[in-house]
Amino acid sequence: MAPPIGQCAVGAALAWLVAKDVLGHSRPFFAPIAVVVCIGVGLGQRLRRVVELVVGVSLGVGVGDLLVSWIGSGVWQIALVVALAMAIAVLLDSGSLIVLQAGSSAVLVATLLPPSGTGGLDRMLDALVGGLMGLAAVALLPASPSALAKRHAMGMFGALSDALRGIAEAIEKSDADLAASALEAARGTQTSVEEFKQALRTSREIATISPLHRHRRTRLEGYEKAAVPLDHALRNARVLARRAIVALDGSSRLPPWLPGALRELNDATLLLRDELATGRPPDKSVRAILSVASRQGNERWGFSADVMIAQLRSITVDLLQATGTEREEAVAALPPLEDGPGPAGPDETRGEKDLDGANVTSTS
């Protein structure tokens, strides 16, 4: 949290200085407030926040100044000013920030800052100054976009690695409880997925705004290609773990090569993580994943085993796509399955759900 806190502190001070000493506004408190709202301590959408902030403050101040100058200030006047400002904001844009800023600005005008001369215009300018200073603070005191993406990607890669390793161990030991533990851990991974996607949006924004980090946009491309396929791989890993619990009750035969393939896929996952982190082309991880794909059997073992093999194939394709491989090429790398009854094809299973409600993607 240190970078956004530092950006807020420096930006707020500079916004006050510019609005007070350069523009000559006596009480430009909208300027530092705008900096804090613009930067915040969350991730992403700062450009949108600046626009919403300026429009919201302008709308609230405009409506407030106009109405209060006509109807005065009081209890019912506050209610009317706030209602009108927020209603107009909703009609313009349903974003929560613009509506809240319109309402809060209207309250300030109707209670503490009665209209006088160019006061309304000055407050709009203060909001604009604060928003621009917030963007300047992000641009000139930026967090590293590649470091931000890397840190959150580690959580996704780690979750997938843990799931694959846990399932492999469960199969090797014929222990359904270990498979259940792997499933339980995998079920908590969606937060990591969402945080990674949000971190990517923030990283792209920083790389766009900041001249210091524009050269890092190419480093982010690898993570952008990997984001959705990694999400799919985690969802398929959850289905794989759930089916492993059923298969390990002793009623199903499992292919002897399956735990080894899972461990090798785990190693390939960690290799892809390291290559993306260093900005190297994922050549080694592609070869490692293709090696796992080429040695997967195509025989039938029974329903539970076939479902597990289908999910392994899906995860393999997902990881290949995470390296930037086209889906058709990734699917073609898998050995064809033997004819006969088995798991449904991709179009039939894409809408299925696992116990978490995660979409299942299959390439069988």
UniProtKB/TrEMBL annotation:
Its main location: membrane. The chain crosses the membrane at residues 26-43, 50-68, 74-92, 127-148. Residues 330-364 are annotated as: Disordered. GO terms for cellular component: membrane. The keyword Transmembrane helix applies. It comes from the Bacteria. It is found in: Membrane. Keywords: Membrane, Transmembrane, Transmembrane helix. InterPro entries: Memb_transporter_dom (IPR049453). Residues 347-356 have a biased composition (Basic and acidic residues). It is a multi-pass membrane protein. Residues 14-136 form the Integral membrane bound transporter domain. This is Uncharacterized membrane protein YgaE, UPF0421/DUF939 family. It comes from Nonomuraea solani.
